[in-house]
Amino acid sequence: MKDRLELEAHAKINLALDVIGKRPDGYHDVKMIMQSIKLCDRVVLEKTEGDGVTLRTDLGMLTCGKGNLVYDAAVLFLEQTGIRAGVSIFLEKHIPVAAGLAGGSTDAAAVLRGLNELFETGLSAEELCEMGLRLGADVPYCITGGTALAEGIGEKLTKLPNAPLFHAVLVKPDASASTKEIYGRLVLDEKTDHPDVDGMIRAIEEKDYLGISSRLGNVLEPVTRELCPEIVKIEQAMKSFGAEGTLMSGSGPTVFGLFTDSARATAAFMHFRVGGYRQVFLTAFTE
């Protein structure tokens, strides 16, 4: 039996994000294509004497107690499984915070997967997803990862074939976007430009690079642009370096550009790095 486990917690981007409508409970029904990328945080789990959860992180702005999804995930796991044990967690952050990349959700998902392995509890992926949904709508997807269709509030997952490999350049402006505020400002009417999610699924199944890059769409992007006009400037620069497609991920404000040519992706990455952006990443799709 292991006493220590180290995991990667991968970020996600949305290749398509549509909002179908608002539910009576205040949440929104969505239809999204989610994609894991190589950019990841590192989560280290260790068994300790006694019981309770302790969390340390290399990012000082984060709380290390209740309210941090990593801490909350560990507490929930121990409560749900009835395990009385001590758990120490170290979180090494690389994914930007409040960026539309599911950084907190993927860290929580890694904790659930890791504790399941560390304590040999034998919970299925479905059981872990049910647990994860109590922490946030993106957590179930982050448990399974890869390429997937997410519906409902994001918890109804349909596994898709792995998307063809794209290189991706991510740029997060200094501004942060509140998911709650963005959804609160969203107006759905006849003018709303809904992405072709079904067409995106066909393009993924056919490994059609052009079909994927030409169907990128996010109904939240026009809302976030109003608060962060820098998004438009970043997308224009991505295209000037030969990105096949570019889009804001999630509720933003991170913008990604997709490239089939690694040299062009690297050139774009260097442009943003020397252009004053503090959070720029050169990454790629992963399973």
Describe the structure.
The protein has ten helices and eleven strands. With 287 residues, it is an alpha+beta fold. It has two domains: 4-159, Ribosomal Protein S5, domain 2 (2-Layer Sandwich); 167-284, 2-Layer Sandwich (Alpha-Beta Plaits). Strands 1, 2, 3, 4, 5, 6 and 8 form a seven-stranded mixed beta sheet that branches. The protein has a four-stranded antiparallel beta sheet with strand order 9-10-7-11, with helices on one face. Helix 1 (69-81) links the parallel strand 3 and strand 4 (86-92).
Structural class: alpha+beta
Strand content: 25-35%
The largest sheet is: 7 strands, mixed
Shape-level CATH architecture of the largest domain: 2-Layer Sandwich
Helical region count? 10
DSSP summary, beta strand count: 11
Q: How many domains make up the coordinates?
A: 2
Task: Set down the secondary structure blueprint.
Elements: E1 4-22, E2 28-48, E3 52-57, H1 69-81, E4 86-92, H2 103-118, H3 125-133, H4 139-144, E5 147-152, E6 156-159, E7 167-172, H5 179-185, H6 197-205, H7 209-213, E8 217-218, H8 221-227, H9 230-240, E9 245-248, E10 255-259, H10 262-274, E11 279-284
Parallel strand pairs: 1-8, 3-4
Antiparallel strand pairs: 1-2, 2-4, 2-5, 5-6, 7-10, 7-11, 9-10
Helix pairs in contact: 1-2, 2-3
